[in-house]
Design a protein that fits this description.
Length: about 80
């Protein structure tokens, strides 16, 4: 799994946990609709730290809380 895949899966997981819509996340985070769609569809090849920061803020959490998931354990990720 790539880092981008992990970010996508984490977003979906948090949307369910927090009972949020994608639209609400876009409004809260400032990440535009097209960019979030590309991340969720696996079409984005480089999710930046700035985007992750914005997403975390949209979920009302820190970047550390966003990344604190087994999805991001290095043994599971393909890092190029």
């Amino acid at each position: 799994m790539t880092l981008n895949d992990a970010v996508s899966k984490r977003i979906v997981q948090l949307l369910k946990e927090k009972n949020m819509t994608q639209y609400r996340l876009e409004q809260e985070s400032g990440v535009i609709h097209g960019a979030l769609n590309r991340i969720l569809a696996g079409q984005n090849k480089t999710v930046t730290l700035t985007t992750i920061y914005k997403l975390a803020r949209g979920f009302n959490m820190t970047v550390f809380e966003f990344m604190d998931d087994d999805l991001f354990r290095s043994e599971y990720l393909e890092i190029d």
